Amino acid sequence: MTVDMGRVYMLNAESDTHTNASLKLGDQQMADKLNWHQGAAIALVQTGFSKCKEGKTVYLPDTRQIQAALTQKIADAGMRCAAAVPLMVEDKLFGILIVGRHGLDSFSSGECEFLRLLSGHVALAAHQARLHTELKTAYDELRETQQAVMQQDRLRALGQMASGIAHDINNALSPVVGFASLLLNYEPDLSQNAKKHLNYIKMAGEDVSHIVARLREFYRRREERESLLPLNLNRLVEEVADMTRPRWRDISQSRGIMVELKMDLATDVPALVGIESELREALTNLIFNAVDAMPKGGQLTLRTCLGGHNFNPDNQPTHAILEVQDTGMGMDQETLKHCLEPFFSTKGNRGTGMGLAMVYGVMERHDGKLEIDSEPGRGTTIQMIFPLREQSPDGKLKEVEASNPAPLQILCIDDEPLLRELVKEILECDGHQVQVADSGQTGLDAFQRAMQRGRPFDVVITDLGMPYLDGREVAKRLKMDSPTTPVIMLTGWGAFMKSDGEVPAHIDGILSKPPRANEMREILTRLTRK
Fold it and tell me: Which of 197, 308, 317, 404 sees the fewest Cβ atoms within 10 Å?
């Protein structure tokens, strides 16, 4: 069937308007004349074909005789004759098919009948296509939602597992962090190299303790009240590159492998706000993954830059980007699909499958994005994309040193020998007199003897998880004998208890393991002043 113009309008049932969906012309030079408000909605009454809503075919032998915006546009373009048939499914109009010719009254009744029959097939096909598109969209949204829920469930399970192992890990970490701090603070004759290495040991130990504290938490969004501190992204990259040097350079060289590190750091990256230990840990994980992906050596590139200019009308950057790129084995699409899942690993017994999941959680907490581009044999590029935002009003670059309280008589109860020794040395360095006890019952006996001598302890520090008599029961019995004596709980579950607001009864303050001298000074000052 030869026509000079064909077009389809789709109906918006809510507003009773139509939008041009398709236009085909025999003479393309007429396109400008017929492209009436391309994409704009037009009311049905303005088309001249309003009877189509009743399921009727509309035939206009002379388009110039109809005073409607669309038909006048058709007439001005030289289409003197037009026919319109409704596209209906289940007696409901959802579109109009319009055809036109240059000659007056140029459609026969047979052609109009053919168009009417054709419209039924076109309407059914178009309706099914629309249903298919809507179904596919709904399916894709459902699949994305399911994947997000599964990811959250996996992370939640990881957090629950972390709650169970936190105490043991923090007990093991405490001597590492604590004694490294003591050496740094009270051994003046250390060389600069020794101080640097001790600081790395202390920093790495604290990062591990933060990991444990967040394993349960990082699937949650960052709370609004959580303060973010300013940090220098370039300096962070340089520090992590230096800290991980033994992994990417020394160990690799000992195996006859050469990993070349290249740093491309933009000088115009402004200060970010975030949690430095989390970002340092995330970057460390990415560097280790990159080195593992290059078993025969290669190039590791750390890059910082600004982004988001194209999406900002003021052409100002909206994001800072930290990129880790390697020239290693790369990942296929199936691996990419699962690489952010906890416990998914391609390293066999050498991997835990927690590295990228941890990085994902860190980026979620910083309202950022993690983008991964990888192909087998072509390496991997991972971008950590951070929003540029203002520093929180109460953010500080470094924590304020707490004042040291007057010398106190302190009882420390813990079943871990190294922990008792560490707490004792930290407190004695601040001038306090410390007595230690290796169990809950031993601590109660020592407390009662001190009261009988008329020299009671000023403060009691107790562990939570101890055999036979745990920290809660110890605090309860101590308060029965001396209600005003402050009791501090030092525990590997401290971070969890603080975040949940679950301070046990009879406890005046909570300290997390590993113990930090500044935190101990602050809580001792606060409780003894009270």
Answer: 197
Examine the fold and report which residue of 72, 107, 142 is the final residue of a domain before the chain moves on: 107
What CATH number is associated with residue 262? 3.30.565.10
Length of the chain as a residue count: 530
Same domain, 373 and 453: no
pLDDT in tens, 330-365: 999 888 887 887 666 776 655 555 678 788 888 888
Dist. CA 195–CA 185, nearest whole Å: 10
Q: How far apart are CA 441 and CA 325, in angstroms?
A: 56
Is 364 among the domain residues? yes
Domain's final residue, options 107, 128, 157: 107
C-alpha dist (Å) from residue 117 to 9, 79, 86, 107, 110: 18, 23, 10, 15, 11
Closest CA to 523 of 490, 483, 474, 500: 490
**Angle at Cα 174 formed by Cα 172 and Cα 176, nearest 5°?**
85
pTM for this entry: 0.45
User: Mean per-residue pLDDT for 186-213?
Assistant: 81
Domain containing 346 equals 228-387
- What digits encode the pLDDT tens for the residues 66-124? 888 888 888 888 889 999 999 988 888 888 999 999 999 999 999 999 999 988 888 88
**Contact in structure between 379 and 328 (CB atoms under 8 Å):** yes
Task: With respect to residue 263, please indicate whether it lies within any of the assigned structural domains.
Answer: yes
Which CATH number do you get for residue 77? 3.30.450.40
The 10s digit of each residue's pLDDT in 38-68 is 556 788 888 888 888 888 899 999 999 988 8
Q: How many CB atoms lie within 10 A of CB 113?
A: 12
| Tally of domains within the chain | 3
